[in-house]
Write a structure and sequence with these properties.
- The structure is a homodimer.
- Chain A contains 19 helices and 33 strands.
- Chain A is α+β, with helices and mostly antiparallel strands.
- Chain A is globular, with a radius of gyration of 27 Å.
- The interface between A and B is large, with 52 and 52 residues.
Chain lengths: ~775, ~775
């Protein structure tokens, strides 16, 4: 743990006291989003201290040209960069002509920030003494509307504490922004036009190269002691900036407030030529409803989300805060309403991990969205990859594969690979496995088998072809080997026979064959018709099978475990316990070669395979492998502790499971990996949900039925969660000595509890 | 082979006929340099077709900021970039106001380029018909003076063929240049001042970040039919450009000519504030001596170089041209006069391989410079690394090593690492071995053992410490292993136990211990005094020895060969013979992962070890390893064929040896690797010299004596070379049935020929 300043609270993230050193961390932690846009919790008024400005529009990116020392054939031409979009939240505030700036104020007291997760808003309040001696009390509140996802609203009010003064609000929109990760303050937006009319401002801008057009807009209303004022704002504009100032002399004790409405409308959703008109309509709606009306709608929207998604924990406020923070951020990032979007690892909270979509979605996020939303959302996420199949085939061709073999990109915005480090782009090929696994996982959970003949099978075929071609035969071993890969543990590069990769490769081939046959049989379809994008013939299947049946798996007789890769035991096998605290995280202290030759594991690798394919291994197998690998695991990927938490719970190692749970759920709140200032780890938050539902709750799907083996950490009195399973909603409440099952929505459901069949019907609390 | 347009000639590189497609290749091949500056063979007059402009100043570079997807701890902040310097060769030529431009002329005939290697100049002649119908005959000649290394001289003459016309020469200097390898046409020079006075022009510029100041200058004289004209030039300048135009109406058959003198003076050699004055003095000297006088001096300078360095080959013009081209380019690049400089892999012929110094210098270039120049030159090259020892220790510290361990950079300009690909920077650590080996090689050749107590030992100690710390103990193998390296064969990354690396690591440790003991004994020095930059104690030596004595070497019983690295035999062992021609070079056709998992070898790796440590292995060992590895070797590094050539000759495989010789000597002339347009492969040219002297000549140093085992390819009548051995110069002439030895300079020398002792005295041709 690296920080401990967030006040524990069941429903809110709270910071008290102003500390310039935590500004960047808090900008990440208090981020808000609505699936279509999002922003870091930057101050509205100007702030001259260290800050990381960020406002992002879903699906809007820039292709940064690949720059490497030595070009490698097959590199993508560009690396997608998440773009900081024009600022619409800014409100310059002056009191008697002095700019309000918390970095230069004489004194700041009673500073409080709150991110109210139940209702979906961010607030801030403080008392400040300016250099001119004037004291003010400030309260701000802001949210991005879920109901109207192009609208954001801000209330900003200033109360004079020690005398009269002139207060001026200058709300603005600003296109003169840049990315923090740029080296040379490059501009990525061409500003096309700035217009102002009747107190409304519009800034039209186009991203360079990708040509996304966005209209950033704003309109403001002002109030004195709650009463709307008819002050005509003074408009100002430049080539990339527009402001509109409202000035008023007010008396001690009076409150001058501004309600600012702003946001983006984008040509991804509207005709490019109509953007200003669309923005005007949006503004009309927003100002008609008003700040308070929009806020009420916001509360209702969030209430609907929490209805199914909430997890309660009794007796452990920090744990409760952690899980709600995770669920809240996931819903701020992706709501499943736009099939072109996906779940970026940093959501709308930072610039890192440039691209939008990683294997995180398939490996970690799909279970969360399947169980807490309508199953169409998960289907949409699968379809996202289906739509990218052509590009995945193209990508594989660039690497020398043929005949319709598909390699999905490691990082993508539009289906094209947009990451350019060879050990990742070319070698972290296990991602292909997760995409196939997600199809299996979806069908297992939803029983929507139709997805496979409709769309899934083509993806499975492309992936199976890839694995078949990627394996090579080792005469020495008399087996098929997969050489030169990076496994889920990215602290190993270009290794041979990564067990996880070989295992999922074999599984993919077998699963594709199984489904080709099933679809041919059940849907009376010949092989040619099955696949429009790739062709297969029966002989090919035989060849696939030859590879799958003779795949090599590295194994240690001595330790009786599968080895993460060839040669793992040649390492100097020091454990995490031997690592001095000052060396951690090792990725911030050790050079890459040192990390690579160490035995330290960034994230579950062999154990990730045991997580996906748990039913293929005995509990003894799992325990042996867990005991072998856990001591080497540094969990420096956010995606790691959740898997270990689920497995520790299964093995009855509840203390460990609880520790891992805290680590995953409070990874960002407590900043375990010393990097929260860069943004939040969104995709791994779905892992936190897994830790509770699959770990403590022991939820699995067994033969088409929900199954539970509930456990509870000794630190908790009780916890509860809900599961949307095939359109029935089941609520599970676990206490230290019993578990209640309640069917919220549905007719009846037969489940397994600790292996025994239990029937749950509506209005009938079943206690086990 | 990729091209075949260079006319075979013993002393010149000649191109006939104008072909826009070979302009970039010829710009590389006809490059000129004088150790202090160099330039691609760009046309003086303007050319609107595809061209790669380049003029470079020794030691002047720019630190390009490292940009990578995911930052890795220990990366250097920058990547050194060779900078294109202001253009001083430009002469715009207009005939009746039409610009002469070979790309737009109606006709170009009798185009001929010649790089005269014997005398060190470049010429070009052609007949051109302009769009206005005027026909001209043009002759240009240019060189960079060896005598005055800040001066370049150009003669440019235009003869009217079909009528009278006005001819205008506008010689210029231009700071508005950029690098071809830049993405965004970034400028790397700040232009400080442009001044013109009395027909002289000066452009002062400073490199960004590194703040090198250079004054580019010019002055011109004009001639009509050989008679100097008193035409006052019309001066023009802008913020980064200066020209001075000379215009004259001339008659059919008359020749209007300009002699332009220009170049750079740099604050690496002069007071920054005096640069213009220095340039004026240089210009005074140059114009006093005049073009023809400077050319005479140039011929004399080159004649002195060839006196010792020349190699003759009879009966094979292409082979003769090849070796002279190699010797010529090496001398254009590095003359051993400036201890701060080194030998860049592309010399002054292109931008690639950003930095200046690689292990190429120690592994390939030192033997050439030792044998063809005074041995002080080789000592200077060793001292270059000695001066960088502190930086090498710093570099090792960044990677977690301590106690004075030194890791020399992979690429450097000033001792700091300036390459930023982890598999190279952090893992291609064998470079450290070559630096130690060069010290051994130097002492063996020159018998100047004093270098070791004076300077070499500190370097050896730093390197031995590094290897000791870098090896780890494998409990499984019961041996010390070196994990995660890139060997000389860069088509393998992050491999374990690269045989070459492990071997040279052991050798370095043993050699350091041997010399610590010898120096302590012979120079009566205690351990502390030996090393000022690092400290050692006796216990440490024991620990080093423990590692050296128990180093692991991968070995195949089946094939009875050392394996390039762990797991080599798991590959699909297809050979180069199985590779379709259209896949080659594989680095231009295969993605990196495919290259890595293939068995293909970029350059000698195990065989490089056999080359360095030939005396540790039997001829049978060598033959077995050569036969095993050669079939997998694609020789896509310029540094590869020479080693195979030397070894093939030793093994009596003369056909192969000859083929490799042609490949190394004509690598650029015939463009084997499809990349000559980017520049020449300078450092590997020293390998060509090795192929003859060590390969065919069989030269070795055995027990302090020169030893020869001469062989001759059946394609040659005879060949000869000279060797400067400990200040005596021996000439060796080999024909199909005998070898003559002649002592050119020295008292007497006892040598070994095919194992037998032979005494050579002056004026006494010894025939064997």
């Amino acid at each position: 743990m690296n920080q401990d300043y967030i006040i524990p609270n069941e429903w809110s993230i709270i910071e008290k006291g102003f500390n310039p050193d935590t500004v960047k961390a808090s900008e990440s932690l208090f981020s808000i989003g609505n699936g279509a846009m999002g922003q870091r919790a930057n101050f509205e008024e100007s702030y001259s201290g260290p800050t990381f400005q960020g406002s992002y529009i879903a699906g809007v990116y820039y292709p940064d040209k690949t720059r490497v020392g030595w070009w490698k054939n097959g590199y993508p031409e560009y690396f997608a960069k998440v773009l900081n979009a024009p600022n619409w939240i800014g409100i310059n505030v002056t009191i008697n002509d002095e700019k309000l700036d918390l970095h230069t104020c004489l004194e700041v007291n009673n500073f409080k920030r709150e991110l109210n997760m139940k209702e979906g808003w961010l607030s801030r309040s403080f008392d400040a003494t300016l250099q001119n001696g004037i004291k003010v009390n400030v309260y701000t509140q802001r949210f991005l509307s879920l109901e109207f996802d192009e609208v954001g609203a801000i209330k900003y009010s200033v109360t004079l504490v020690n005398g009269d003064a002139t207060v001026e609000f200058s709300p603005y929109i600003d296109g003169g922004i840049t990315n923090e990760d740029t080296n040379w303050d490059d501009q990525f937006w061409d500003i096309l036009d700035v217009t102002q009319k009747e107190q409304q401002s519009f800034l039209q801008a186009r991203t360079m190269k990708t040509n996304f057009c966005a209209c950033t807009y704003m309109e403001s209303l002002v109030f004195l002691d709650g009463k709307q004022q008819e002050i005509s704002g003074v408009e100002k504009k430049s080539s990339n900036y527009a402001s509109c100032s409202y000035k008023k002399g007010i008396k001690q004790g009076q409150t001058f407030a501004i309600h600012k409405f702003g946001g983006y409308v984008v040509d991804r959703n509207h005709d490019k030529l109509e953007l200003v008109n669309v923005a005007k309509n949006v503004l009309k709606k927003a100002t008609d409803i008003g700040f308070d009306g929009l806020l009420e709608l916001q509360k209702k929207s969030w209430s609907r989300i929490w209805e199914t998604a909430d997890i309660t924990i009794k007796g452990d406020v920090k744990a409760q805060q952690g899980i709600r923070f995770n669920i809240f951020q996931l819903n701020q990032t992706y709501l499943g309403t736009d099939a072109r979007l996906n779940i970026g690892p940093k959501g709308f909270t930072g610039e890192k991990y440039g691209g939008s979509t990683y294997w995180d979605t398939e490996a970690y996020c799909i279970p969360f969205y399947m169980a807490t939303k309508d199953q169409k959302v998960a289907r949409k996420l699968l379809e996202y990859r289906y739509h990218h199949l052509d590009k995945a085939i193209e990508n594989a061709e660039k690497l020398g594969f043929k005949n319709g073999a598909a390699l999905y990109p490691m990082v993508t915005m539009n289906g094209e690979e947009c990451h350019n480090e060879w050990e990742i782009t070319f070698e972290e090929i296990h991602r292909n496995g997760a995409i196939a696994f997600a199809i299996y996982n979806y069908c297992r959970y939803t029983n929507d088998y139709n997805y496979i003949p409709e769309k899934g099978l083509e993806v499975l075929i492309g992936i199976a072809k890839f694995w078949h071609q990627r394996a090579t035969y080792s005469t020495k071993k008399g087996k098929y080997v997969i050489l030169g890969v990076t496994g889920p543990n990215e602290y190993e590069n270009n290794v041979n026979n990564n067990w996880y990769t070989n295992y999922i490769a074999r599984w993919c081939i077998n699963y594709a064959i199984e489904n080709i046959k099933r679809v041919a049989q059940e849907f009376n379809t010949d092989y040619q018709r099955i696949s429009e994008k790739t062709t297969i013939d029966v002989n090919e299947l035989e060849k696939w099978k030859e590879v799958a049946d003779n795949m090599y798996f590295p194994y240690s007789e001595e330790h009786n475990v599968f080895l993460q890769q060839d040669g793992f035991l040649d390492k100097d096998l020091i454990t995490v316990a031997d690592l001095p605290q000052e060396s951690r995280p090792i990725n911030q202290h050790w050079s890459w070669d040192r990390i690579l030759r160490s035995p330290f594991i960034k994230q579950a690798d062999v154990l990730q395979g045991f997580y996906f394919f748990e039913d293929k291994f005995s509990e003894e197998d799992l325990e042996r492998h867990f005991n072998f690998y856990e001591p080497f695991t540094v969990h420096e990927s956010s995606l790691s502790p959740c898997v270990h938490s689920v497995q520790a719970a299964k093995l009855g190692k509840m203390d460990q499971a609880y520790r891992f749970y805290l680590r995953t759920s409070r990874l960002d709140l407590d900043d375990y990996n010393h990097e929260v200032h860069e943004g939040l780890h969104i995709t791994s938050m779905a892992g936190t949900w897994m830790s509770i539902v699959e770990g403590f709750g022991g939820m699995r799907i067994i033969d088409g039925k929900l199954s539970f083996e509930p456990r509870i950490p000794k630190q908790w009195e009780a916890y509860s969660f809900k599961i949307n399973f095939r359109n029935q909603i089941l609520k599970i409440n676990v206490t230290q000595n019993k578990t209640n099952f309640e069917l919220i929505n549905g007719d009846k459901i037969s489940i397994l509890v600790n292996g025994a069949s239990v029937l749950v019907t509506p209005n009938n609390l079943v206690t086990v």
